[in-house]
């Protein structure tokens, strides 16, 4: 989670984390569909309105780090070092995301998501949103040599790489395999050897 700076921001972040932790505990104990928003608020000792000031929906409670992951993807483009190749920077962020979501203790949460149609729909919409944000960053990259379509395709493939790798027997090896294909395609789309080295390894 992003570290807040001011006292008010720290308090707000602590409340948000408390709500998310409480919700996840209840969901895992009793099942996602069996727990209502009011129960989460009561268990966290907050008002329902306070809960909704931090989370827009019940589904969002399960994906508490959604915004952090989205920012990390866009920063891989916007904050990479001058001359740093693009695809390896994206691969690094997907590796970090896969490690987080396949860490010890993550399996029950993923099983809960897989078993809930509402959570699966939310996760899919979240991936589409992340891909759109990443595409926007790619299109604004000063070193861009690829077409807008190529940028949107790279963004979608990058986000999908996470979903595919997470389900593989060896997730981190799968990330590398997928990104070798992505890198080859991006080299053709962006023009090998042009710009700031978009296809670097």
TrEMBL record:
PROSITE patterns listed in its UniProt record: HTH_TETR_2 (PS50977)
InterPro entries: Homeodomain-like_sf, HTH-type_TetR-like_transc_reg, HTH_TetR
Keyword list, A-Z: DNA-binding, Transcription, Transcription regulation
Superkingdom of origin organism: Bacteria
UniProt keyword Transmembrane helix present: no
This protein's record includes keyword Protein biosynthesis: no
Residue span, HTH tetR-type domain: 13-73
UniProt DNA-binding residue ranges: 36-55
Protein name (database record): TetR/AcrR family transcriptional regulator
């Amino acid at each position: 989670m992003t570290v807040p700076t001011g006292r008010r921001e720290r308090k707000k972040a602590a409340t948000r984390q408390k709500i998310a932790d409480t919700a996840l505990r209840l969901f895992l104990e009793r099942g996602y569909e069996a727990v209502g928003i009011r129960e989460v608020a009561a268990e966290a000792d907050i008002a329902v309105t306070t809960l909704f000031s931090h989370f827009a929906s019940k589904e969002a409670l399960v994906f508490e780090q959604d915004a952090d992951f989205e920012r990390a993807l866009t920063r891989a483009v916007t904050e990479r070092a001058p001359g740093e190749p693009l695809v390896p920077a994206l691969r690094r962020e997907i590796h970090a995301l896969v490690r987080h979501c396949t860490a010890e203790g993550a399996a029950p949460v993923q099983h809960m998501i897989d078993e809930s149609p509402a959570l699966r729909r939310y996760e899919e919409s979240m991936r589409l949103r992340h891909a759109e944000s990443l595409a926007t960053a790619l299109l604004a990259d000063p070193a861009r040599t690829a077409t807008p379509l190529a940028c949107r395709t790279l963004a979608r493939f990058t986000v999908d790489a996470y979903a595919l790798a997470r389900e593989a027997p060896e997730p981190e090896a799968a990330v590398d395999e997928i990104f070798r294909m992505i890198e080859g395609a991006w080299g053709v789309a962006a023009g090998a050897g042009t710009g700031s080295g978009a296809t670097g390894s």
